[in-house]
Design goal:
169 residues; 74% helix; single chain; 2% strand; mainly alpha; two-stranded antiparallel ribbon
Length: 169
């Protein structure tokens, strides 16, 4: 299905962007540590790291859902017969979708308000805009919710789907 392929492409791309940003962030933190040792800390490191962690998590959450890497109580589900197991798996996917889609809905107003008001984090020399992290929560939550719905459809209709992995299709 075209929607599944599109979702998989976006999911993989965002996961790669998150990994790159986490890698770059490591060097930024290292630079701050080195400059602090010389008594010249980099301004805004705390704010950049705090907002970046949120963005990295929500860039990767869609991949975690689609690759079925989210936490599951497999030991409990495996004790049920296949029909009951399937019901619980579908219910879990629906609850996951509901959670992330509610997160998307709840985050829209704060994100728009943050953007309109020019909300920043930090004081002094470097002020970091908050709206990119807020919009990433919306986008990542929406993608995770969509991926849960995709998994639910795959499970309900017994569709054959390729597992999402790091290798390009």
């Amino acid at each position: 299905m075209a929607l599944i392929r599109l979702s998989d492409f976006i999911t993989k791309t965002l996961m790669i962007l998150a990994a790159i940003w986490a890698f770059v962030l490591c060097f930024f933190i290292l630079a701050d540590i080195i400059f602090r040792a010389a008594n010249m800390p980099l301004q805004g490191t705390k704010e950049i790291v705090a907002n970046s962690v949120v963005m990295i998590v929500f860039l990767q959450v869609g991949f975690a859902v689609r690759s079925r890497s989210m936490l599951q109580a497999d030991f409990l589900i495996q004790t049920f017969n296949p029909q009951v197991r399937r019901i619980f798996v579908v219910l879990g996917y629906l609850l996951g979708a509901a959670f992330f889609l509610f997160l998307l809905k709840a985050g829209i107003t704060p994100a728009l308000r943050s953007f309109a008001n020019g909300e920043f984090d930090g004081e002094g020399a470097l002020r970091v805009p908050v709206w990119p992290a807020r919009f990433m929560i919306i986008f990542g939550g929406g993608l995770a919710g969509l991926n849960y719905l995709i998994l639910c459809v795959i499970e309900l209709f017994g569709l054959k789907s390729q597992e999402l992995d790091l290798v390009a299709d």
